[in-house]
Amino acid sequence: MKQHQSQEISTGHGFLESPRWHDGKLWLSDFFRQHVITLDGETVEEQIKVDDSPSGLGFLADGSFLVVTMHDRLVLRIAPDGQVTEYADLSSIAVGAANDMLVTASGDAYVGNFGFDVGGGEEPRPTHLAHITPDGTVRPVPGDVTCPNGMGILPDGRTFVVAETFAQRISAFDRADDGSLTNYRTWAPLPEGFSPDGLCVDADGGVWFANVFDDGPDGAFYRVEEGGEITDTIPADGTWAVACAFGGPDNATLYLVCNTTSLEDFFQGISEGHVHTADVGRRGI
């Protein structure tokens, strides 16, 4: 297994999530400070403040961007002029908090949810991904998934992958031309005790994921291939590894989001967020 090192490029945030490279900048959600920010070199700029915890991010062809609000279980659309409107209501599908999101070039959006009350002490149980079609229709994706989290599409354009945080696996669906997902299956089983969170895909078909809730040696970023072989790792140095994304001018920089917190601190809204970068010798898609 190859081990890579990372360099911190930004710190002093709350609880960071959902890194996305778009329009020459890194976009991030901050759960606890309730805003979406961009990072451009050393410049941090607030893009929107919400009365909720923002999570998944995505971008539409008209120049607007979408953000998931976790507790209201909504997707908001922020137009280029800053106008905020409700884009989709996920409450008929999302059980517990809504979470990460993937938005494709065709305008399809997929949103995960916890599936249970994490803070209330409930046991994990299956739920469904929500698929928002380009016309705004919200429908459940067939297939029981356990805390669907980070998502991506492999280089073939047909294989949709999703991290199941409380099921120790990366799962897959077949994606049709109309954006519908079928043929749910395990793509990569992960070691016992792993909790995959955010993920991204490289041009060689590997999936990079964050193993969250662990500030020990297993709390790190990993690259896994279909079938479960782990090929690369990046230590998170005593923080929670939360999410990752390829970006930069040549799409060859891996951005890593880490948070210094614990379960007890997390439920009290205490965290310090960091952004790192790593050169892993691969490119995103």
From TrEMBL:
Span of domain SMP-30/Gluconolactonase/LRE-like region:
17-257
- Return the protein name: 5-valerolactone hydrolase
Entry keyword Zinc:
yes
List cofactor names only.
Zn(2+)
Q: Which GO terms describe its molecular function?
A: hydrolase activity; metal ion binding
Q: Keyword Metal-binding on this protein?
A: yes
The UniProt note on the cofactor reads as follows:
Binds 1 divalent metal cation per subunit.
State the superkingdom. Answer: Bacteria
- Binding residue positions for substrate: 99, 117
Residues in coiled coil: none
Under Pfam families, the record lists: SGL
Source species of the chain? Rhodococcus oxybenzonivorans
Question: What SUPFAM superfamilies does this protein map onto?
Answer: Calcium-dependent phosphotriesterase
Q: Which InterPro entries match?
A: 6-blade_b-propeller_TolB-like (IPR011042), SGL (IPR013658), SMP-30 (IPR005511), SMP-30/CGR1_Lactonase (IPR051262)
- Residues bound to a divalent metal cation are 17, 149, 197
Active-site residues (renumbered): 197 (proton donor/acceptor)
Which keywords, in A-to-Z order, does the entry hold?
Hydrolase, Metal-binding, Zinc
